[in-house]
Design brief:
The complex is a heterodimer of chains A (158) and B (768).
Chain A (H helix, E strand, L loop, with lengths): L2 H8 L6 E9 L2 E6 L3 E6 L13 E7 L2 E7 H4 L12 E7 L2 E7 L1 E9 L11 H6 E7 L2 E6 L1 H5 L7
Chain B lengths: L2 H28 L5 H21 L2 H19 L6 H23 L9 H11 L10 H4 L10 H12 L2 H11 L5 E9 L1 H5 L4 H7 L5 E7 L17 E8 L4 H7 L7 E8 L13 H6 L6 H14 L19 H6 L32 H11 L8 H24 L2 H6 L1 H25 E3 L1 H4 L2 H12 L3 E6 L4 E3 H22 L3 H6 L6 E10 L2 E8 L6 H10 L11 H6 L22 H10 L3 E7 L3 E9 L4 E9 L2 E6 L3 E6 L4 E4 L5 E5 L2 E7 H4 L12 E6 L5 E6 L1 E11 L11 E6 L5 E5 L7 H7 L1
Parallel strand pairs in B: 6-8, 13-22, 17-19
Antiparallel strand pairs in B: 1-3, 1-4, 2-3, 5-7, 8-9, 9-11, 10-11, 12-13, 12-20, 14-18, 15-16, 16-17, 18-19, 20-21, 21-22
The chains are: A mainly beta (158), B alpha+beta (768).
Amino acid sequence: MQAFETREEHDPASGNSMQLIAFLIGEQVYGVEITTVREIRAWNGATPLPNTQEYVRGVINLRGTIVPIFDLRARFGDGVTSPTKNHVVVVMSVGEKWVGILVDAVSDILSVSKSEVHPVPEGDNLDSELLNGIVTHDNKMVGLIDLDAIVAGTKTES
Amino acid sequence: MSELDEFKATYFDECSELLAELEEQFIAIQEGDHDSDRLNAVFRAIHSIKGGAGAFGFDKLVEFAHSFETMLDFVRDGRVEMSEEVISLCIRSNDLVADFVAAARDGVDLAPDFGAEELAAFKMHAGEDDDEPMEDFDIEFTPVMVQVTDESIVSEAKDDEELPDSFDSAPFQESVPETGEHWHIKLIPFSRLYERANDPLLLFRELPSLGDVQIKATLVDVPLLVDFDPFGVYCTWEITLTSDKASEEDIREVFEFVEGDCELLVERRSVPVEADLVGFAEEKDAEQALEPGEPAELLSQIADLAAEDDKGDETPQSSSDEENVVSFADLAAQIEPTPAPVVQSSAPGKETSSPSPAAQSPAPGKKSGSAPAKSTAIQTIRVDLEKVDRVVNMVGELVITQSMLTQQMDDRLRAQYQELVRGVEVLAQTTRGLQDAVMAIRAQPVKSVFSRMPRLVRELNAKTGKKIRLEMVGEHTEIDKTIIEQLSDPLTHMIRNSADHGVEQPEDRVAAGKSEEGVIQLSAEQAGGNIVIAVEDDGAGINRERVLKLAREKGIVTPDQQLSDEQIDELVFAPGFSTASAVSDISGRGVGMDVVISNIKKIGGSVHVRSSPGKGTRMQLRLPLTLAVLDVMLVEVAGVPYVIPLSSIVETLQCRRAEFGQGPSGRQVLQVRGEYVHVIDLATRFEMKTDVEAHERFVVLCEADGNTKVALMVDQIIGQQQVVIKSLEENFQRIDGIAGGTILGDGNVALIVDVQGLKSPTEQKSAA
């Protein structure tokens, strides 16, 4: 799975095109830039964190480092995922931090042109808050995840 | 960071080590150990600080360190007695050097007269001769050696120095037209030249570009081994340059970098001068003899030179005094000191760091031996702490993996795969060894933090007018570096507190039948898996009546609360508590002692105070040996593993045996041996649901702040184990009630319960 990491060097990601890892939440396709992805692993449970929002699924041990897992479905306000072994955690780096997001499945690697990225229509609060933009691929809408936004706003209430 | 900044950073690193060493040496000297080794160590340290400062242009530091060094040199020679006064001057000056270094590091300007008093004191002791501005040397300096040229040329040369080169050059060219001009160059370095890291060799290498060069090192000033000062300057050079194009300006340009740091004579000769220069050394030889900082090497090479030099009868010509001229081989053969060579005559111009050899009387061979001895001492490397931490972390992982492997071995497996089992057992042993070794890398003697305290006590003495002596015990006790770094503030506060509130004014002490001088003892010792550091004074002890009254006034203790003596003593650590009726600038702002508690708790330690009225107070820190591994109790709440630091657990009991009751506010309390303890159900606190029957659950009685207890309700107690602490904040954020995470043998993450943090601020207040 780590082979993804090395691909960035061979791809003209720096130019006008970029590569996305696409994943599914239900039927909806979301994507993140491939360069931010560190690892993709099967869901193997997480230790729940007390006093955090419901979309924080807990923490896992990633080779000795503790990495928090965010439930993307819950983050989009669509209810908490009931994960099985078939669910997937995409570990990504956001700035200095490594975080994992829980998704239903990883579907594809997409090559898209940066000029194809459309702004998120205003109005739907959560979407415009959590997405950087939208691209169309194979007639499907792919939401570009804003990782900083996903991670932000997870402060405990107390 | 530029390269220069890196060098500077290294220099300041070294400075802090050197200052710590100085402090240590001075303490020993103060205690009456006037061993010459100590003085030499002091000398070396000051000199190193000065040397680096010179290279970076920290002039004030150089000036101060130089004067300090000069006086120390007089002390070392016995010209100045190591009196109480001198020692206290030294110690004071050491503090000042530290201030100068700090100012240089932070780019802060000190007051122009900073250290002026001490500077004056140095001069008083060491005499004024050293104090001439270095710039004057060029004019005033009298060459050590007499020129061996005939009179006419000497006088010509003198004219030549003062007149423009072009003015005089014509007649000489006429006299020796076919071979070009002959220049006689004489280089007499001052020690400053070496202190600024210049190397004459590099200069000499420039010369061949001007013409034909012959270089000779004059070594007659090299004293007996006995008198050899490693930093002394004994070697001078005479150079004959034959060139048809070089002007005096060209020659002087080569030596431009050392201008002012050496005596440079450049004169023109009418005839080739081979005849009057003795034992011409080739450039190669000069090169070898060029290392005055390395006496042993220099001496051996001088000996070689002397041995090679068969023209012994010619040797003395460049010396002013025939009877002083002895080849080194002869010198070395002699055991009794001979009259010193001529260096002394140059004293007005010389830095006293190269003192007159006659005045020195160290044990034979000691000095010259010091440099090689240093290189055979314990070798160290500087390693980025981050790299060490990475190793520590990985070893932690290894330990966990290894214990996981061991857990997997059931009897069937053991019977079936004996070789594998043996391998795993060896692995377990090696892992343990590796873990110990890695921990030892991080371990450091507490001395590094203890050594800052004498200065603190001196300052406190000066401020309070009290007479306090600091005794240190067990400063070689080793403890994890991270813990040491966290100790400085707590110890500073504790000692300040002892000095300010503990030890009485001298007259009060005398009235109480004690000696005028108060003693604060700072001790460290290993006790089991802990390090115990104690600050103990022989002062008045804690005034419990006043403490309790104040605590009630400040609302720290409710009026109806009855406290034991110990509990009252612990109140000094309560936030916002301060007993000093007048707030001094030393302590009494009510911050400090609670900082002690929070800092120590943060590193997994505990604080206890014990006081007996009239006799003194003992404050004790109990610290873990290392932060990397934490002893914990593994518990389960709603199917999720949690660990509780063993250091905070008082006892555990089954719920069915525990006596619960209702507190005044209707909250559940636990009654343990007459004490009512606030109960926190972790399941409720962490918003989880548990299906375990209430009476099947367990209570873990923990000690929170000081002696405040709290009872944690958990579903299951699984057992004790060691864990490696992992940060949650690294990839996430702080979580209320959780101190961090750790990875269990099965690879899952368990959260570490933050016993202090479980209580919300309001609860904390009411529970205190």
